Amino acid sequence: MNPFVEFIVSAFVVIGGVFLLVGSFGMIKLPDLMSRLHAPTKATTLGIGSALIASVVFFAVAGEFSIHEVLIAFFLFLTAPITAHFVAKAYMLRHRDRVEGQLPDTRRRCGWSTYDPAPGRESSEAADPVDGRG
Amino acid sequence: MIAYALTFSFAAVSIALMLNLYRLAKGPTVMDRVIAVDTMVINVIALIILYGIYQGTTVYFEAALLFAMFGFVSTVAYCRFILRGDVIE
Hints:
The complex is a heterodimer. Chain A is mainly alpha-helical.
């Protein structure tokens, strides 16, 4: 294989490994869950993206280009923020006492939308005058 | 040269998996454990892809794609369960 291509693949593989390690180390090092969320969703996604680029380059040069790596990268880059959003929402709901004082006021009766009752469980929510403004 | 880089990355990802396992075992809250499992899934995907490069074959990418989808769906389902007490309303 061409030494230049070999260097590119090696560099991306090493960068990917380092970023995956940094992302997982952040999960140990950071103090609480809201800060801990940053490590897996940013550093780890970057690391896996780098490993996937290495794989794409390696197999494209070897002559068996496959679309699967691009699909995996697309899927992971799409789902990482959604996962982080859901985890943060669930944390806010379960540990209301820990985050309550730090959140800005939304001028709604229930506060943040995470604390809203489930749709169909409480009909009086629709009558909230502030909510009607959108 | 690629072999040395792959050895280094295998070691790094293995250490990362051990760190995730520590967070999974210790994690003070339930959501800590959920995010630990999610990160573990991403690390396993990376391991599968690196092993594919090591073996020089593309047959492992289907497994990686399945892991990606399964990890995402399981994390979101668990978060929905905690948020609403119900996965599908």
